[in-house]
Amino acid sequence: AVGILVSDGADGTVIDALKAAxxxxxxxxxxxxxxxGGVKLKGGKRLKxxxxxxxxxxxxxxxxxxxxxxxxxAEMLKEGAAIDFAKDAFGHLKAIGxxxxxxxxLDKAGVEADAGVIDVSTDAKPWLKPAATRQWDRxxxxxxxx
Length: 146
Hints:
Blueprint: E1 2-6, H1 12-24, E2 29-33, E3 39-40, E4 46-47, E5 51-52, E6 63-67, H2 70-76, H3 80-91, E7 96-98, H4 103-108, E8 117-119, H5 125-131, H6 139-142
Parallel strand pairs: 1-2, 1-6, 2-5, 6-7, 7-8
Antiparallel strand pairs: 3-4
């Protein structure tokens, strides 16, 4: 299962591309938003949420994507559940797709660039392969190993 964290003002074309790519690869996709009512995308279209951020942590998913607007990211920086969403996904070795406007959230959550942290703003396909597995090369960076 894939979780896509979204904010008001997020780019619906990126979300649609991620959803289509993940579903095309056999994954189920859940949209996670700050509020139960979903978000208003760039251009004004509403996107329904499958889960509210506070009750739908990244631990529930095999891989995640974070698709935010600049203003949406600024709001998420004040939201502990959003920081935890990114931090826990990284710590649990999950692939993280992101849009550049989400970079401040990734930075605050301690997410470091690696082969499983992929900009999906122009193409979702490079994220699919890492999304299918854990990022084992990351493990020595996030925990002490015997």
